[in-house]
Structure to design on (132 residues):
């Protein structure tokens, strides 16, 4: 398309203060491509020229989808992380109680190293002392 000089553009026909890209239409049915391909390095995306905007919109959509999905279900990676941390914390408390470490030491190190709450660690200490 041939470039048109500013003198040839009638300001009454075009609002020059209006943005060139209507961000409300990005990613909707009116937009045939935007944010729908999986690879921004695909030839179609490179030819488009809007791949920076596309990447921003795509990441925002993914963030919203993940937040919506996390309300209904728990992701395995989040669930496993808490299970492993709790098991490691329990093992740490049991080892420390067997070595006759003080409660303050176990609480301090348990909070710092395993990100456990004080109440949770105290319950594990009481449980380990009753079993020992």
């Amino acid at each position: 398309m041939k470039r048109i000089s500013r003198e040839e553009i009638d300001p009454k026909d075009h609002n020059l203060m209006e943005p060139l890209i209507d961000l409300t239409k990005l990613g909707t049915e009116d937009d045939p491509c935007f944010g729908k391909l999986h690879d921004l390095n695909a030839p179609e995306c490179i030819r488009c020229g809007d791949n920076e905007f596309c990447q921003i919109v795509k990441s925002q959509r993914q963030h919203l989808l993940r937040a919506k999905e996390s309300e209904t279900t728990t992701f395995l990676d989040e669930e496993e992380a808490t299970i492993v941390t709790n098991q490691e914390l329990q093992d740490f408390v049991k080892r420390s109680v067997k070595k006759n470490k003080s409660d303050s030491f176990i609480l301090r190190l348990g909070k710092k190293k395993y990100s456990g709450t004080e109440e949770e660690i105290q319950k594990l200490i009481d449980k380990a002392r009753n079993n020992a």
Notes: The two ends are 83 Å apart (CA to CA). The chain has a mean pLDDT of 77. Helices lie at 43-48, 51-72, 76-98, 103-114, 118-131. The chain has two domains: 7-72, 76-131.
